[in-house]
Design a protein that fits this description.
single chain; 484 residues; mainly alpha; Four Helix Bundle (Hemerythrin (Met), subunit A); Herpes Virus-1; 2 domains; 8% strand
Length: 484
């Protein structure tokens, strides 16, 4: 199988649309030099964040704990419990504490280990009954939380170890039935003697503190200990400075702009539920629409040329490729049936499935194209290495090709996530504008992919011009739809 494209389709001047309003609006920023403008103003994905080590996170958390402890005149361990339960909001904790609005906050006013009056009479003989292990022990072997429920030290230790082995740390509560008072950190550590249990408890606690903090996110990279900190809680792209993992700061999942966190979760759930149907339509092979010979896709570009009859067609819609270059890139848009509301229930179900398959196939195709283009990059790297060894330039001379490949991956990744966005988007002029920009981005990505796959025969100036056009398409779409 081969893929090809006429050179007249690569220029921006050939990109025309019957809707002049969209075209004029979309191209209003084409003369802007992105590199000369502060990214804070033009990059819709930009936001300020810091990558912190565990020691730095501990220091940040302890500063907050110290502030609350001083303000309310309570032990730091209790301050940490209250902050963790209220997403580290000092003002919220202070208000609840002063209003005595919850049982936990009221109980926190009682000093831990204060002997409950109901048990004073049992101390006449200096022995206390433990209701857990059913033994009489000297009262010095007993401790209690602020709720005044007393148990022996051995039972407290056993209780904490069992909870910790189940992955519970900050959520460990009193052993008494229906008691909701939580055990502070210093109280737990006082009863844990084994070093491995203390270490496990502190690790679990640290993870709980970070997860409950609205301004902190663990890097989802494998075996990475970096924590990202930002006060801008938005679905923006964060990149770990240690393992280079890219993720959404707001939800901690794979970056998914322009689709928001709620929508992408719905989409992924739907894809998982309809996996059998999705697998059926996501095959790697299709028949040539002209000679019907079976063709396998081996590159990221969707412009296909049949190796048998040389017919140029689109991999996605199987339409003639000539209609994809100089006119509106209709392939990405789904045409709703205007009369579907009046059809039968079965007809509506078929239409719903047809719509889903339209968006899913394109979503899945771009995911596969990303993987295929990684293979293309490796082949390109090998060929460039041979050229360098043969004296045909240096690695620096060929670096622009790797820059182009990285940009292509970024643009295609964004394009992939436009399909869940479009699937759940309500119809109207706003969606028409989005679909227009989506189509323009897709057309320029295919042009860029084509030229990279034939990099050694592509003029460098032409390739860099195509890179600039594709990035402007991507940036404009995100600027208009990322943070609605």
């Amino acid at each position: 199988m081969e893929e090809s494209m006429t050179t007249s389709q690569g220029g921006e001047s050939d990109m025309e649309c019957s809707d002049n309003e969209f075209y004029d609006y979309y191209n209003s920023n084409d003369d802007i030099d992105i590199e000369q403008i502060d990214p804070r103003n033009i990059d819709p994905e930009y936001f300020e964040y810091n990558c912190l080590l565990e020691e730095q996170v501990d220091r940040l958390l302890n500063e907050t704990v110290e502030t609350l402890s001083n303000n309310l005149q309570i032990p730091p361990s209790l301050a940490k419990v209250l902050l963790h339960s209220n997403q580290w909001n000092i003002n919220e904790v202070t208000k609840k504490f002063n209003d005595n609005s919850t049982q936990t906050l009221i109980a926190a006013r009682i000093e831990p280990d204060a002997p409950p009056s109901s048990l004073l009479l049992t101390r006449l003989s200096s022995y206390v009954y433990c209701s857990v292990c059913a033994t009489l022990q000297h009262f010095e072997n007993f401790h209690n939380l602020s709720c005044a429920h007393m148990f022996c030290n051995e039972c407290w230790t056993m209780h904490f170890e069992v909870q910790i082995n189940q992955g519970i740390s900050t959520g460990i509560a009193c052993m008494a039935r229906d008691c909701i008072v939580l055990a502070p950190e210093d109280f737990v550590l006082k009863h844990l003697q084994r070093p491995n249990m203390r270490e496990k408890y502190q690790q679990f606690s640290f993870q709980d503190y970070v997860k409950s903090h609205p301004f902190l996110r663990f890097c989802p990279g494998p075996n990475c200990s970096i924590v990202v900190h930002s006060k801008d809680i938005k679905a923006k792209r964060a990149t770990c400075n240690q393992c280079k993992t890219i993720f959404c700061f707001k939800c901690g999942c794979d970056y998914h702009a322009p689709t928001d966190c709620h929508v992408i979760k719905k989409w992924l759930t739907k894809c998982a539920d309809d996996s059998e149907t999705a697998n059926y339509i996501s095959a790697h092979t299709k028949d040539c629409p002209k000679c019907h010979i079976c063709i396998e896709k081996n590159g990221g570009c969707n412009h296909m040329q049949c190796y048998n009859c040389k017919h140029d067609f689109c991999w996605m819609c199987l339409g003639d490729w000539k209609s994809h270059g100089s006119e509106y890139y209709e392939c990405s848009r789904y045409r709703e049936n205007p009369n579907i509301a009046h059809e039968s229930v079965h007809a509506q179900a078929r239409e719903a499935l047809k719509k889903y398959l339209h968006y899913y196939e394109r979503w899945e195709n771009h995911s596969k194209s990303l993987k295929l283009e990684e293979q293309t990059l490796e082949k390109l790297r090998s060929r460039i290495n041979q050229n360098v060894m043969s004296g045909l330039g240096t690695w620096i001379d060929w670096q622009y090709l790797f820059t182009a490949a990285n940009l292509l991956a970024k643009c295609r990744y964004t394009l992939q996530y436009t399909y869940p966005y479009a699937y759940y988007m309500e119809g109207g002029s706003r969606k028409e504008l989005f679909e227009y920009q989506q189509a323009q981005l897709e057309a320029e990505i295919e042009n860029l992919s084509w030229k990279i796959e034939r990099a050694e025969t592509t003029n460098r100036g032409d390739l860099e011009n195509q890179m600039d056009i594709a990035e402007k398409r991507r940036t404009t779409l995100l600027k208009d739809f990322l943070d609605e």
